[in-house]
Amino acid sequence: MNWLNDVKWDAQGLVPVIAQEQSSGDVLMFAWMNREALQKTAELGRAVYFSRSRKRLWFKGEESGHVQTVHDMRMDCDNDVILLKVTQTGHEPGIACHTGRHSCFFQKYEHDTQGGTWKSVEPVLKDPESIYK
User: Superfamily for 2-122?
Assistant: First the structure.
């Protein structure tokens, strides 16, 4: 597992991960992985993250069914960020966000006379209450 040693893990043993939809190029989400999560992702071809709030591995889609199939894993030039190119499954179009949206990056900054505001620019595709029971 020498390839895991090439990653620059932070003080908590984590590395930031960006999930990007392979077909559209949309950035779907940001999460964290520990060594075990990155190894399992490579072995399974399925995104496995480390949940800091739950303090355990989080197999994307384990509750929602919105699984990420991994096609490509890349590391940035500083070896401290991982990029996954994925297909988001479980709902058409794919839902990556726990809010029921396609992407977690659905809030857009808009400048206004008050200095600016964040606006939701993506629709809720499925009510989160029906996703997480």
Answer: Phosphoribosyl-AMP cyclohydrolase (3.10.20.810)
